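Crash report, auto-generated. Payload:
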Amino acid sequence: MTQNRPWTPYLLILPSVAFLALLFIVPLVQTLWLAVSSDGSPSLDNMQRMVADINFTNSLRNTFLLTLAVVPVQIAIALAMGTMVSKVGTGRETILWIWTIPLGISDLAAGLVWLSILQNTGYFNTILFSLGLIERQTGWLSYQTPVALFFAIAVAEIWRGTAIVMVIIVAGLNQVPKEFKEAAEIFGAGPWTRFRKITLPLIRPALQSALILRTVLAFEVFAVVYALGGRNFPVLVGEAYNWQNQNQNYGVAAAYAVLIMIISLSATLIYLKALKVDPERLP
Amino acid sequence: MANIVIDRVRKSFGAFQALKEVSLTINDGEFVSLLGPSGCGKTTLLRIIAGLETASRGDIRIGDKSVIGLAPKDRGLAMVFQNYAVFPHMTVYENVAFGLRRQKADETRVKAQVAKAAGLLHIEQYLDRYPNKLSGGQRQRVAVARALAVEPKVLLMDEPLSNLDALLRLEMRTELKTVLQSAGTTTIYVTHDQTEAMGLSDRIAVMHGGIVEQVGSPVDVYNHPATRFVGGFIGNPPMNFIKVPVSNGKVVVGADHLPVPREAGAEVVLGLRGEAVELSSLPQGLEMKVRVAEPMGSHLLLTGSIHDQPVRVILPASETVKNGDTIGLKLDSQRITWLSPESGKSYSAEMA
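Recovered output after restart:
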């Protein structure tokens, strides 16, 4: 069939390619151009303006700190969850279903959930007050309490974003035949050694995917931060948003967008390199 | 080295009784096969001995020490799995060294033991490779080397050859026998392949429906099956079972009157190995109607009926019998097993 009409496959994938090109590649090229041009000619003005801005260093530092704090914790929690649920017989599906609920909530909604907990009149303060631990409403999310604010955002992000890591890791764990663990057990490996020497190396591909996905998403953190901290906790995407909407300066906003992209791409490349998966060493 | 005592072990999975009450003693240095069809409980029993599964009831003693409640690693055993379970992310060397490293053996001992085990299994040239670069047979060698490297008191093997192709299986079987004989390790070998069990074992425990039907040497189990199941499961073709009437404590077979055990009633089941016959003439011999005669080269396989009951017998290749012939057979009376038609057990086994 296709030998007679060699263009048929191309014709069939054309719509999706055109759609992606139109809505992804064109804006990407435009953004790149926007970032490195000024009044229609190449220029580093936007870059310089971005770097010189008062919030630039803060937002860069905050984004990196948040990523460094959130992603490892998410991986660790997801590994623990995945390992625990693999021991469960009946009810496993239900547990997984409950654990993945946060996946179904938009990040802004997730931010608002945690806002209702942590704001001055929120549930957290109510509980602390009823336990007699505080005497009056305490602010956790203001610019005067940067550490508490950082923690609040980190916790909300961990709550919201761990499920996807867990889903990937559970899928990875399911790929590991139980004989490997049993063999390790027979030959004297305790639970920790089995995890470190057998499970972890064998779920490397899943771990790699989870790390890339979560890290890229962590560098794009915005809505949760915006809901909880507003501009008290500047992050890169937040700055891009402000330059775009408040300041109406599309050039600097584009510069931020390009910076985020470069960071994400670098992180991905580092993971691909550092966690190189040799297909020869997989089951 | 150690003996193994399996003492009234039971195992249930929910309402399903996988093991109904199994007792078996395996002597120090002995090679015992657990042989049976799938679902007979043989793998469950092996996994209980290994500590990968817990018995619902009963005791397991290795070297006269109860191992109930002990972790697998504290039982002094090694295991070879059906699908090898050779770690794909480690080199062959690291795979073989895995157990030794867990025992915190020093590097000289690790090197020496790996070299020894690799030498026995002829995998020295693959030590630096990863298992995925190896064939199934080579991987199974790695798995056996990994087990022997720790010099276990007991070696457990769960259908280790069943994933290999027929030719390789035969080759590995011979080699396993040589290797294990020189190692002298007490071995329990689970298989559904009767030729493997016959060829390798000192003794065979034939399992069926969660119980051990018979334990004995390969020759013993083959020639004197304790039950109809054992006779039918072991041997190719399986044992023939012919129901015959008894009169005055004797059974009429052609011109012969063969005495049957005193316990026999009005009818008895004559258990006959296909090759325990020779061609004779009628009416001296037992009459057999031949439906199909298949010359197999090494022998002649006849399928047909005796007393209207289906049988398969084997004659020397030199005999000429055609489809549809009626022939007379002389039975080797020493090799007849008399079984009760009611219980399906052999009378000699019932008395024992």
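Post-recovery validation: Chain B has two domains: 4-228, 237-351.
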